[in-house]
Amino acid sequence: MSIGKSPWVVHFNCNSCNGCDIELVACLTPHYDLERFGVLHVGNPKHADILVVTGAVNHRNARVLKNVYLQVPDPKVVVALGVCTSSGGVFAGCYNILGGIDKVIPVDLFIPGCPPRPEAMIDGFVRAVGLLEAKRRGEPVSAPGKPVQVFTPPPVAAPEGA
Amino acid sequence: MTLVWCLLALVLGPFVGALIMGADRKVTARIQGRKGPPLLQPAYDVVKLLQKSPIALNRVQIFYAWLHLAFLLMTIVLLVMGSDLLLVLFAHAFAAIALVLGGMCVRSPYSRIGSQRKIMQIIAYEPTLILVVVGIYFCCGSFRAADVLALKTPLLAQLPLVFLAYLAAVAIKLDKSPFDVATSHHAHQELIKGVTLEYSGPYLAIIEVAHFYEVFLLFGIIVAFWATNPLAGIALASFSFFLQTVVDNACARLTSLWMVRFMWTVPLLLALSNLAWFYA
Q1: How far does the CA of residue A17 sit from the closest CA of chain B (Å)?
Q2: Do B193 and A49 make contact, defined as CB atoms within 8 angstroms?
Q3: Structural domain contains residue A8
Q4: How far apart are CA A116 and CA A98, in angstroms?
Q5: Prior bond to A116 cis, omega within 30?
Q6: Are B215 and B174 in contact (CB under 8 A)?
C-alpha cells in the first residue's frame, strides 16, 4: 500500500501575515475537505509527512525553521506556501529578511500566490503526495539541475457584472 | 477451542478496531457536513507510519510502546479465555500505565503534561470499571468472564445504569470530547499530541495498533452486555458507537479536573444505585 494515502501536514508559520494560514485552514473546512484525501492537520512535526511553511524567513526564525525541518521523519516533502515563502514577496530586500525559505531548507514544491487559492493549495498537496511517493521509492525528485516543481494557480474569473 | 478463539481475536481484533475507527472518522465528517476520508483510513495511516524512518529519543520509550501493546493483547487473551474479570481489569490498567510511563520518560513538557492528564483519566474511569465488574459479579455470582456467556438473561436487563456508566468510561478510553484531555484523535489537537507526542513513525504505529485492539476490546465488552443474542449485542454496540460520535461532536473539551469530578459523581452514582437494587 502506498505511503501517499495518509499525508499528514504540519504547518509552520515563518513570519507570515496569516493570510496563507487562514486559507490553508480553509482547505480543511466542509467546502474543500482536504481530509477526504487522508490529510490530517497535525501540530507535531514528528508525526508529519508534509511540512508546509508560510511567510518569508528572517534571521531570527531561520534556526527554528531548520529545527522543525529536521524533526520531520523521512520521507518528507517541503511545500512553500505563498509568494513570501517562495521568494520573500513584498518583503524581499528588507534588512531582516533572508528571502524565500529555500535559503534555509530544501524546498520541493512552491505554491505562489498572495494568498494562493484553496484550489491551488489542494492541487499543490496532490502533487506533494506524488513527490512523497517518489521519495519513498528512492527516486531523485530535486536533483541538482532539475527544476523544482512550481505550480501556478489558474487565473481567477471575474465575478459577473464586475 | 479456547486457543482458536484467542487467535481469532488477536488476528481479527485490529481489523475490527480499524474499521470502527474509520467509521468514526466517516460519521464525524458527515456530522460536520464533510465527505470524510475512506473507511480504511486508520489502516492506511498505520501502513504509512511503518514506512517512515524510525526516530526515538531513548530505548525505554520504545520498550513502553511495546509494553502497552503487550498488556492490551494480554487483556484480550485473558478475556477470551474466560478468566477472572479483576485480572482483566488489572492487565488493562497496566496497559494505560505503560503509556503514561512512555510519555514520562522523555523530556518534552507536552508529553509529560499529557501523561499527567492520562493519570487523571485513569483516576476518573477506574472506579467505574471496578463497579462494572462488581455488577457482573452480582449477576453471575462469580468473577469469571466465562460465566457471563452462560447467563440466561442479558446483563443489560439487570445492569442498565452500570452500562451507562461504562459508556462514560469508554468515552474516556477512546479520548472522546469532552474527555480528550491527554491526547486527541482526528484534527483537533490537544497539547499538540499529548502522551504520544514524542513517538514517530513505526513506534507511533505500535501505539495506533494497540489502540485498534483497545477499540475492539471496549466494543466487545459492550456486545457482552447482550451476550444472549449476539445480533442484539452488535446493535447495542453500534448504537453506543453512534452515541459516542455524536457526543464527541456536540461537546467541547473540558478540563481534566472537571472530568474527575463528573466521573466520580454522575456515572459512579448511577452504577452504585444500580448495585443497590440487588439488595432491595
Answers
A1: 23
A2: no
A3: yes
A4: 22
A5: no
A6: yes
- Count structural domains, chain A: 1
Contact, B45 vs B196, CB < 8 A?
A: no
Interchain CB distance below 8 Å, A46 and B33: no
**Residue A32 at interface with chain B, using a CB cutoff of 8 Å:** no
User: What angle (nearest 5°) sits at the alpha carbon of residue B42, between those of residues B37 and B47?
Assistant: 115
Q: Is residue A28 assigned to a domain?
A: yes
Chain B CB within 8 Å of residue A137 CB: no
Q: Is residue A160 part of a domain?
A: no
**Dist CA B263 CA B259 (whole Å):** 6
Which residue shows C-alpha cell 511495546?
B66
Paired strand residues for A109: A79, A149
Query: Which residue from B41, B197, B199 is facing A6, i.e. has the nearest CB?
Result: B41
A110 domain residue, yes or no: yes
B4 by Cβ neighbours in 10 Å (0-12 / 13-18 / 19+) ranks as exposed
SS3 A80: strand
- Give the pLDDT of chain B (280 residues) as one tens digit per residue: 788 888 888 888 899 999 999 999 999 989 988 888 999 999 999 999 998 888 888 889 999 999 999 999 999 999 888 888 899 999 999 999 999 999 899 888 999 999 999 999 999 999 999 999 998 888 888 888 888 888 788 888 888 899 999 999 999 998 888 888 877 776 677 777 888 888 888 999 999 999 999 999 999 899 888 888 889 889 999 999 999 999 988 888 888 899 999 999 999 999 999 888 887 7
Give the C-alpha distances (Å, rounded to integers) separating A128 from A131, A161, B104, B165.
5, 37, 35, 46
Helix (H, G, I), strand (E, B) or coil at B26: helix
A28: CATH? 3.40.50.12280
What is the domain extent for residue A38? 3-140
- Output the DSSP codes for B90-112: HHHHHHHHHHHHHHHTS--HHHH
Q: Is A44 exposed, middle or buried (0-12, 13-18, 19+ CB in 10 A)?
A: buried
